[in-house]
Amino acid sequence: MFGIILSVIAIVLGILTGLTFNIPYSLTKYLAVAILACLDSVFGAYNSNLDEKFNLKVFVSGFFGNALIAIFLVFVGLKLDVDIYLAVIIVFSTRILNNFTFIRRKILDKTYDSSKSKKENTEDKKSI
């Protein structure tokens, strides 16, 4: 619950800051790729948490490592005049969507299993 509250506060602060702070056009590709890399790490962490395999060290290293590598790839692509950032965007978008699919399935399975067990418990009580 604390993470959700913190996320909402961060989003509100980001929106308020974004209204008064303009990002230079030359940095937009870097920022877009870094945001996608960080979102990929967050969705991956939530997916791991549902599997009860979450490790904070892995999350932090992936969060910053993915963002730095993605920014580096954009930098190299711009120096070579090749749109590598498009490939990075496609990869991270695909990973985010895959993680979201896994998260959705796990949540639906848990809710279905819990509702099914509640029905079985009420039916057992009625039969007694």
What does this structure look like?
The chain is an all-alpha fold and 128 residues long. Helices cover 87% and strands 0% of the residues. The chain starts with a helix and ends with a helix. The model has no long low-confidence stretch (mean pLDDT 85).
Keywords:
mainly alpha; 128 residues; 4 helices
H and E string? HHHH
In percent, how helical is the residue content? over 70%
Continuous helix count: 4
Number of E-type strands: 0
Round the mean pLDDT to the nearest integer and report it.
85
Distance between the termini: 39 Å
The biggest beta sheet, please?
Answer: none
- The whole-angstrom Rg is 20 Å
Oligomer: single chain
Proportion of strand residues:
under 5%
- The general outline is elongated
Stretches where pLDDT is under 50 for at least 5 consecutive residues are: none
Q: Structural class, judged by helices and strands?
A: mainly alpha
Question: What can be said about this structure in brief?
Answer:
The protein has helices at 2-20, 28-50, 56-80, 84-127. With 128 residues, the chain is mainly α. The protein is elongated.
Ordered list of secondary-structure elements with their pairings:
Elements: H1 2-20, H2 28-50, H3 56-80, H4 84-127
Helix pairs in contact: 2-3, 2-4
